[in-house]
Design brief:
It is a single chain. The chain has 2 domains: 68 residues, Orthogonal Bundle (434 Repressor (Amino-terminal Domain)); 129 residues, Umud Fragment, subunit A (Ribbon). It has a 9-stranded mixed sheet. By secondary structure, it is an alpha+beta fold. Helix content is 25%, strand content 29%. It is globular and about 45 Å long. A hairpin with an 8-residue loop joins strand 7 and strand 8.
Length: 214
């Protein structure tokens, strides 16, 4: 077995997380995680490696085979986080409020998040989810951590603006000559935009994680 696949599988097993739980923490589809762990998919995007490493308390360097196992932190040890990198991120009442012209008027709370980069912290917001189109992975009342950006890889969960005014959270697929927006909830059919209709779609953010309601 490839050393990287072996390390990835061990990290997931030792974390005690199910693939569904790991998917919720990383924003990666359960089926994709399973393919990564079995070696069916050999080329894993670096952002997925980083997300899995963070969720399983390991490092991307280790999962990529660039770091010796002895250098890895043990789960029974305590580590002090850099307090300067714990940021107070604004939480907005809805997706549209988080990206509106007067977004600051709709901040309903703040939440602490550990974010390494100053630039990423400036572009990160939290949004309280309304509706159940992304159920069961994202439920009404959950908070999604969103990084504002104008493009995402196909297959990622993103905040998308339609026709310059409607904001939705969907899994985004950019296929040949068409864009498909899919909900997790099977009761909601995919939205398909072909040819010139693709211009109606604008990516405004990448969903990085989901914080479940208690």
């Amino acid at each position: 077995m490839d050393e990287r696949i072996k390390r990835l599988r061990q990290a997931i097993e030792q974390s005690g997380l199910t693939y569904a739980e790991l998917g919720e923490r990383t924003g990666i589809a359960k089926s994709s995680l399973q393919r990564y762990a079995t070696g069916e998919t050999k080329k894993i995007p670096i952002d997925c490696i980083e997300a899995i490493a963070k969720a399983t308390n390991t490092s991307a360097k280790y999962l990529m085979g660039w770091e010796d196992p002895q250098e890895q932190p043990q789960s029974d040890k305590l580590y002090v986080l850099d307090q300067g990198k714990i940021r107070q991120i604004p939480i907005y009442e809805s997706v549209s409020a988080g990206f509106g012209a007067s977004a600051s008027d709709y901040v309903v709370d703040y939440m602490p998040l550990y974010i390494d980069s100053d630039s990423e912290a400036e572009e990160t917001i939290g949004i309280r989810v309304v509706g159940n189109s992304m159920y069961p992975k994202i439920e009404e009342g959950d908070i999604i951590q969103v990084r504002k950006q104008s493009d995402v890889d196909s297959g990622k969960v993103a905040v998308v603006m339609i026709d310059g005014e409607d904001f939705v959270v969907k899994r985004f697929y950019h296929e040949k000559n068409r864009i498909v927006l899919k909900s997790f909830n099977p009761e909601y059919p995919p939205k398909v935009f072909e040819g010139k209709e693709m211009a109606r779609i604008q990516i405004v953010g990448l969903v990085r994680s989901v914080i479940k309601k208690l």
